[in-house]
Structures are given as structure tokens and as C-alpha cells.
Design brief:
Helix content: 55-70%
Shape: elongated
Strand order of the largest sheet: 2-3-10-5-7-6
Number of helices: 14
Oligomer: single chain
Structural class: alpha+beta
Length: 414
């Protein structure tokens, strides 16, 4: 019996909304705009978090920590930077060999050295390339994301082979209309055969990751001599948890302290940049955007609730006589309230569906424009729930008002 009454109330409420389609549509537009705003905010936050996480993984490696003479220049004062430059020794090839010798299958190490160079092919030149001399193990330490080709092998790295992996910007400049694999680029007057092309990586902290040129570390030393200092990258052989990464980091720290013959209580004379630094950046970025995004979504939903409330109040006023007749023939106050709430809920769900449809249509357009966005099922469900709750909240006061209508006065009204 109760189910039948609820179904009857729902039918009456939906019928009331459909009897004035323009009014219901305008209220639905307000809900649609609010839901579209909410879904867009969530989709944008997801995209920002994913973008930052992917770029951080590409720049450092998802479970990779960095050991360097100075690893956090941008976070140091001039005095702190000067003290570290004076106190911390350079990291040399002998340090890398020592670390690898005592890795004990707990840590995999790689090394890099960077410098700015001009890269050329034929008559084309790119003066702002970032040349990275690296060990062969680097392919397993960072997400290099190859579009085609491969990274150099350990054998190629050991014999200082003149082979190179290039980024998307280098390809666009030197080989805009041809496949660069197997072709030769010139670095410092020497020819390097292109064996790999990276996928387009984007930027991180304003620095392009697409202008990189990777060559074996020994080949870099043949061209420019031994570097003043190396940057070491490391991770556990199979990182399945944060605890494993921390244990590998602790092992690397102990090994480097032993190498430097530091006594207990002595401060480290080297820097370690852990994966948590990149993750904390991602979390901080998402939180900062979320702080501004939450009020925007809330204000949009509040505005929609006000519009729908006003619409339902008008509907109740226009149906005063009808409500009086229904009460006179036996409809209870609860049934009248259910009818009004059903009308506002219908408008909320309808508007929410329209708003989600707008976002669903715009997401492929944004992806075609190069933005990595996606409408998750959880986001769609949350948006629909928010729309439904907004409809119920908007209908609550008009429904209460409808139940308080005097039956005699209602029957006299026209």
C-alpha cells in the first residue's frame, strides 16, 4: 500500500513538472550548470593530479630517489647553498662503483650528468638541447616512455657507443617530416646514431622534458671529459611498497656514509631527494586547487537550489486549488509533501543528467586538444547524487508550505 502511494506521489510530481515544461526546464538548467561545474572541477583536479604524478615519475621515477652533491637548490637560501657547496664533496665515478659493489641486491643504481648543447642534423640546429649522459640502468629507473626504438644497452654504454635517444622537441626541429630512427645527429662535431625516440613528455616546473638527448655516460665523457660531479638515481630492484623504497634509501645512505667515512653523529655531506618529495608536491598542488574548487562548486549548487526552490514555490502557488481538492478527497499531508518533493527531485535528476551530458560531450573535445582529462564513473555518480540532494533540499520548504495550506481556503482559490 505504501509503495503504491509513493508511486502515485511520484507520478503526480513528475506530471506537475511536465505540465509546465518551460518552468521545469529553466530550473533544470540551473541544476545542469551546477552539476557541470562540479563535474568539471573534479575532472580538472583528477587531470592535474594525474599530470603532476606522471611528470614527476618521468622526471624522477615513481619509486626512484636521487643522490647528489646538492639535490634541492631551489629550496635553499644563498647561505645554505654556499655551505653545501663548500661542505659536500663531488660525486665521482669511483663513488658509483663503490655503491654498486655494496648494493647487495637491495638497490639498483644509475648515474647521469647534464649539460646544455647544440644538436644538429643537416642544416637544422637546435641550440637549447639538454644532453644527458647516463648509464644503461637508467631505463629501469625512470619512465622514459618510448614512442619508437629503444634505450642503449649496457654493452653500448660500456664501449661508449655514439648512440642517442632524443625527445619530441628535437624530433620536431631536426626531423619534422621523416622518421629519425637510424639517422645521425651531431653533438660537439661528432655523429650519433638515433636509436630511440621518446613520447611527448610535457613540462615540469616550467622545464621541458622534450628537449632531452640521452647518450651513454662514457660517450659524454669522451666528448667533454669527466664531469665535476654526478647525480645518482636509485631504487629497489622490485619496488612493491613504500617501505621497500625507504629500506633501499636507508641502505644507500649507509653505503655513501661508509664511502665518505662519516662517523656516527656526523651530518650527511650529500643530498638525497626521496620519491615522497614529488608525491608531496602532487598532494600540495591538488589541495591548493581543491581549496578554491570546493567553494566554487558549493556556490553553484547553492544558486541552483535557490532557483529550484523559487520554481517549486511558484508551482505550489499555482496548484493551491488542486492541492485543496486532493486533500478534500483524502490525500494526506505526507502524500502532498511526497508529490512536491518528487517534482523537485525530478527536476534535480533531469538537470543533473543534462549537466553530466554536457561534460561527457566536452571531455573528448578537451582530449582532442591535448588535455588528459577523463570523466570517471565515480565522478558521474557523485554529481548525480549531488543533483538529487539539491533537488530534495530545494523542494523541502515548498513541500512543507504545501502541507500547511488550509483546505477550505484552497478550495475557494482559483
Amino acid at each position: 500500500m505504501r509503495v503504491a502511494l509513493l508511486l502515485d506521489a511520484a507520478a503526480e510530481g513528475i506530471g506537475a513538472a511536465r505540465s509546465h515544461p518551460l518552468r521545469a526546464a529553466l530550473a533544470g538548467v540551473a541544476i545542469a550548470a551546477a552539476v557541470a561545474t562540479l563535474a568539471t572541477v573534479v575532472v580538472t583536479l583528477d587531470a592535474i593530479e594525474n599530470f603532476a604524478r606522471v611528470n614527476a615519475a618521468r622526471a624522477f621515477g615513481s619509486d626512484t630517489f636521487v643522490m647528489a652533491k646538492i639535490a634541492s637548490v631551489g629550496q635553499l637560501s644563498r647561505r645554505e647553498l654556499a655551505l653545501k657547496q663548500e661542505r659536500n664533496p663531488n660525486i665521482e665515478r669511483s663513488d658509483l662503483r663503490f655503491m654498486e659493489r655494496y648494493a647487495d641486491n637491495r638497490v639498483v643504481y644509475g648515474a647521469t650528468v647534464n649539460r646544455a648543447v647544440e644538436v644538429a642534423a643537416g642544416s637544422e640546429k637546435y641550440p637549447g638541447a639538454s644532453l644527458i649522459g647516463a648509464t644503461a640502468t637508467l631505463a629501469g629507473l625512470r619512465d622514459l616512455a618510448f614512442e619508437s626504438g629503444r634505450f642503449f644497452t649496457r654493452e653500448e654504454a660500456d664501449r661508449a657507443a655514439f648512440v642517442a635517444v632524443i625527445g619530441a622537441t628535437i624530433v620536431d626541429t631536426l626531423y619534422p617530416n621523416v622518421d629519425p630512427l637510424g639517422r645521425t645527429i651531431r653533438i660537439a662535431g661528432r655523429g650519433f646514431r638515433v636509436i630511440g625516440v621518446q613520447e611527448r613528455q610535457g613540462n615540469i616546473s616550467g622545464v621541458s622534458l622534450d628537449r632531452n638527448v640521452w647518450i651513454p655516460l662514457r660517450a659524454s665523457e669522451r666528448l667533454f671529459g669527466a664531469p665535476a660531479t654526478l647525480q645518482l638515481l636509485a631504487k629497489p630492484p622490485e619496488a612493491t611498497s613504500t617501505a621497500q623504497v625507504r629500506r633501499a634509501e636507508d641502505h644507500a645512505r649507509i653505503s655513501m656514509r661508509a664511502r665518505r667515512q662519516l662517523q656516527p653523529g656526523d651530518a650527511d655531506n650529500f643530498d638525497i631527494l626521496s620519491p615522497e618529495a614529488a608525491r608531496s608536491f602532487v598532494q600540495s598542488l591538488s589541495e591548493r586547487v581543491g581549496v578554491a574548487a570546493a567553494p566554487i562548486s558549493a556556490m553553484a549548487l547553492l544558486a541552483a537550489v535557490i532557483v529550484v526552490t523559487n520554481t517549486i514555490l511558484v508551482s505550489v502557488t499555482q496548484r493551491t486549488n488542486e492541492i485543496g481538492i486532493r486533500r478534500a478527497v483524502g490525500a494526506s499531508r505526507a502524500q502532498i509533501m511526497a508529490e512536491v518533493l518528487a517534482e523537485s527531485l525530478f527536476i534535480g535528476v533531469f538537470g543533473g543528467a543534462v549537466g553530466l551530458g554536457m561534460v561527457y560531450v566536452l571531455v573528448p573535445v578537451a582530449r582532442a586538444a591535448g588535455l588528459e582529462v577523463e570523466l570517471q564513473a565515480s565522478t558521474a555518480l557523485t554529481s548525480l547524487v549531488a543533483a538529487s540532494l539539491s533537488g530534495i533540499v530545494a523542494g523541502w520548504y515548498p513541500a512543507r508550505r504545501a502541507t500547511r495550506i488550509d483546505v477550505v481556503d484552497a478550495l475557494r482559490s482559483e
